[in-house]
Specification:
Length: 223
């Protein structure tokens, strides 16, 4: 079994890199969008709050696999209609876009809850020091919001990492698809599935250690 894994290790590593690319890309983009949407969901006009709430509710009610299919096939249909010729959305772009749509919905709720947890006195103190509202948010409220959101953000990162395996269904050569191909070629599925599991557990373990250490540091700083 070890010989077979060693033989296919370059392909597995390529798939592992693709998996990390999809997970990191969709998480980072989702976090950026959530930091923009969460304040709008709390402080924005009523129509804006309703639109964001509707988006979050819709995406949280859909299976992730369905979102991937909608982005992959729907994106091709949309772009083909816009440009008047056949335009195919590649699997990597569709995978990152789909998981970004999903992660944005969940991360927005996490960040929104953390933002609500920041007391109004922090706003008042920042404004009393002469800061305008954008500066008060960026310098005073945002750091405290992210501290409160960190545990939820860490959990969502781990969820996105595991959900990245779903993009194999649209043909993306990520870790799980590489493992399936290698298992079929060598007729040793257990060896490759255990290897894939070990790689996922490795990333999860390192991420958990980093998140816990960073959370402890920030919590100590707040005290």
């Amino acid at each position: 079994m070890i010989e077979a894994v060693i033989q296919y290790s370059p392909q597995l590593l390529q798939g592992f890199v693709v998996t990390l690319s999809v997970a990191v890309g969709s998480f980072v983009l989702g976090l950026i969008f959530s930091v923009v949407l969460a304040p709008a969901a709390v402080y924005g006009p009523a129509p804006v709050r309703k639109v964001i709430a509707g988006y979050v509710s819709l995406i949280r009610g859909l299976p992730e696999l369905l979102v991937i299919f909608l982005i992959f096939y729907g994106g091709t249909v949309l772009l083909t209609g816009l440009f008047g010729g056949y335009v195919e959305v590649d699997a990597l772009t569709a995978g990152i876009a789909a998981l970004t749509v999903v992660s944005t919905a969940y991360l927005t709720e996490i960040v929104r809850g953390a933002l609500v947890g920041v007391s109004s006195g922090q706003w008042e103190a920042a404004l009393a020091l002469g800061l305008r509202r954008p500066g008060a948010f960026r310098l005073v409220v945002l750091p405290q919001m992210m501290v409160r959101a960190l545990p939820g953000l860490g959990n969502q990162w781990l969820v996105i990492l595991k959900e990245s395996a779903l993009v194999s269904i649209i043909g993306l050569e990520e870790l799980m698809r590489k493992s399936v191909v290698a298992a079929g070629a060598t007729h040793k599925p257990l060896a490759f599935y255990l290897t894939a599991a070990a790689l996922y557990v490795l990333v999860t373990g390192v991420s958990t250690l980093f998140i816990n250490a960073y959370n402890q540091r920030l919590t100590t700083h707040l005290r």
